[in-house]
Amino acid sequence: MPVPSHSTSVFNETTLPAALRGEHRTKAGVWGVIQVIEGELGYSLVNGDDETILTPENPGLILPEQTHWVELIGPVRVQVHFYDERPDLSDHHMPTAVAA
């Protein structure tokens, strides 16, 4: 199982950097996983073919050199993890709350 080479701080709707909301890309050989801890986050690729809502149960995979951006939907807590090889998204699924 790959281990992240590094991770961002945990961002919320007020601390999410503007640079992440504009088009940007990972470097060659760098994979990313957008892990939503709470809330929802829009995730889009530059080709427009893949617009997704990321949730704690649905993390976003970023391929090396893939141009993408995120959009705030509402309150959110999110962190990005970076890898030197393709990560397993199942490692980033947050458990859903079980009603008592």
Q: Characteristics of this structure?
A:
100 residues, mainly beta, Jelly Rolls, 1 helix, 4% helix
CATH fold field value? Jelly Rolls
User: Nearest-angstrom radius of gyration?
Assistant: 13 Å
CATH architecture: Sandwich
How far apart the termini lie comes to 33 Å
* Helicity, as a percent range: under 10%
Q: Tell the overall outline.
A: globular
**Could you describe the largest sheet, including whether it forms a barrel?**
7 strands, antiparallel
The unreliable regions are none
- The count of β-strands is 7
CATH top level label: Mainly Beta
CATH superfamily: Jelly Rolls
Element-by-element helix/strand order: EEHEEEEE
Number of helices: 1
Counting structural domains, the number is 1
